[in-house]
Write a structure and sequence with these properties.
mainly beta; Immunoglobulin-like; five-stranded antiparallel sheet; Interleukin-6 receptor subunit beta; membrane; immunoglobulin domain
């Protein structure tokens, strides 16, 4: 700098001033010295030193054009940084800055791609349109985007994004007239435009979901009626609908066939539902011709179908007192509570009838109970027992069990058990005769508690199943399989089994019964079943002499 008359004057300047350059291009800058400095300071272009951010540029990139002008050339602007300064060695040794510029390096905008638009209904009369696009690569420069739109004969103000570079929302659109939209990107290095879109905004509407959904039950136990309000005028758009529903405690949705709700409506009756079941419903809508977007799903609403009579009778079985006399039996009748989808309502009571087969003309004994078991004392004979379940809507079909005086029919063969996948499986070979069903009994064998019978039915077509109960490892179970025929039942075949075995909890207590010179007789008691934890296969005896040698 030159001080003259109290004013500070620059001894030179750089051109171009603060350029914006394309990344990867070449660039030349000129440092031009003022003539006044040449005379005053005895400085020339040959003394100029170029620097990038205080780093000296190699002299191979310099060129002395004349005594007042020096140039520097960069073949690739990727290496440029800011500032770029022109400096000089005053008096041959003192370096002084002449001038500096800010260099900005970046890229021109790419053509915006993947332009798409959607009209979100916000209220009955509010339809803003949001367009999104791919802005392309990062330019490293201030790049401005504008969403431009026009009718064939009229251009509208540009939509300028706020705080983003890939979307913009216009607050007012008109339906039933074609609109052309496109995106313009611009920065200091150039401009680019997307391909235009032409559409009627009515074709890209995402309507508000139906609201005020209500669910009501009617006379039929398999039907629920849905009613709702649509939030878009039929004059603007006719709608079609999707209705989904699920059982309240289930996560899997079912859907009404779309063709059943493909026309404008404000109500629909969903059929084929389970009686006395709580359902959850939700609904959505879109333009009737399928052009545009589905609304969000509406808020969920619940409804309960009315009761229907039970669809089947309870599964029934019996336990006959092992101490029965030749004259009388004590029979404990048992049946299983129906599953909710079978009960179709609240079971109020069970009706049990016991009829002697030897005296069909005699009226049956009838019992009304609200438990799932009944103990009766019967004369020795053959009986037909029926059980029906009753709810508010009616009675189930009867379940029938034949109790014969003797089990005279063929029994199953080759009864075996197999632990598999954490379950205890039972397999057998069926008799040659036609089987209606099988009854599988089991109970926990324990020296500390009674054998409490559990049971299940299986179809007559199977020859194996697993025990559907809380089967515990290391416990012994007595399993019995009965085949049931149309006119009687076969003898039960039994087997003991473990789900999982473990070593015994303790060893047996040994006593010496007789000791001779070369022999000893040892005795011990068997372990209790609770101590065995599995089947005892063998005993191993260890003994040793007085001097400690073990055998």
């Amino acid at each position: 700098f030159l001080v003259s008359g109290g004013l500070v004057q620059s001894c030179g300047h750089i051109i171009p001033e603060s350029p914006v350059l394309a990344l990867g291009s070449n660039f030349t800058a000129l440092c031009i010295l003022n003539e006044s400095c040449l005379d005053f300071g005895n400085i020339y272009a040959s003394q100029i030193i170029w620097k990038i951010k205080n780093r000296v540029v190699p002299k191979e990139q310099y060129r002395e054009i004349n005594r007042t002008v020096s140039s520097v050339t960069f073949n690739d602007t990727s290496s440029l940084a800011t500032p770029l300064t022109c400096n000089i060695l005053a008096d041959g040794q003192i370096e002084q800055n002449i001038y500096g510029i800010t260099v900005t390096v970046g890229l021109p905008p790419e053509k915006p791609k993947n332009l798409s638009c959607i009209v979100h209904q916000m209220s009955k009369l509010t339809y803003p349109m949001t367009c999104t696009w791919d802005p392309g690569r990062h330019t490293f420069l201030d790049t401005h985007f504008r969403l431009k739109n026009r009718w064939p004969q009229e251009t509208f103000p540009d939509c300028i994004p706020k705080d983003v570079n890939n979307s913009c929302t216009t607050t007012d659109v008109q339906f039933f007239v074609n609109l052309e939209v496109w995106v313009e990107a611009a920065n200091a290095l150039g401009k680019a435009e997307s391909d235009p879109l032409v559409f009627d905004p009515i074709e890209i509407v995402k309507p508000l979901s139906p609201h005020n959904l209500s669910v009501t039950s009617g006379i039929l136990p398999t039907v629920l009626k849905l009613s709702w309000e649509n939030r878009i005028s039929a004059a603007v758009m006719k709608l079609k609908f999707n209705i989904r529903y699920r059982i309240f405690d289930d996560t899997n949705w079912m859907q009404v066939p779309p063709e059943d709700t493909a026309s404008p409506r404000t109500s629909f009756s969903v059929q084929g539902l389970r009686p006395y079941t709580k359902y959850v419903f939700s609904i959505r809508c879109m333009k009737e011709d399928g052009v545009g977007y589905w609304s969000d799903w509406s808020e969920e609403r619940t409804g309960v179908t009315t009761e229907d009579k039970p669809s089947k009778g309870p599964s029934i079985w019996r336990i006959i007192d092992a101490c029965r006399t030749s004259a009388f039996w004590t029979v404990r009748l048992m049946w299983k509570a129906l599953e909710p989808y079978e009960a179709n309502g609240v079971i109020l009571q069970y009706e049990v009838t016991v009829r002697a087969k030897s005296s069909l003309s005699s009226p049956p004994e009838k019992y009304n109970v609200n438990t799932t078991n009944l103990t009766v004392k019967l004369p020795n004979g053959t009986y037909e027992v029926t059980v029906t379940a009753h709810n508010k809507a009616g009675a189930s079909p009867p379940s029938v069990l034949l109790i014969p005086a003797v089990n005279s029919k063929a029994s199953v063969k080759n009864l075996k058990t197999l632990p598999k996948d954490g379950k205890l499986w039972v397999r057998w070979t069926a008799p040659n005769n036609y089987i209606i069903k099988y009854v599988i009994e089991w109970c926990l064998v324990s020296n500390s508690s009674d054998c409490i019978i559990e049971w299940q039915n299986e179809p007559g077509t199977v020859q194996g199943t697993y025990l559907k109960g809380d089967i515990k490892p290391f416990k012994c179970y007595l399993i019995t399989v009965y085949p049931l025929y149309a006119d009687g039942q076969g003898n039960g075949q039994s087997v003991k089994a473990y789900l999982q075995q473990d070593r015994p909890s303790k060893g047996p207590t040994i006593q010496t019964k007789k000791v001779g010179k070369a022999e000893a007789v040892l005795t011990w008691n068997h372990l209790t079943v609770d101590e065995q934890n599995g089947f005892i296969r063998s005993y191993t005896i260890f003994y040793k002499t007085i001097d400690g040698n073990e055998t």
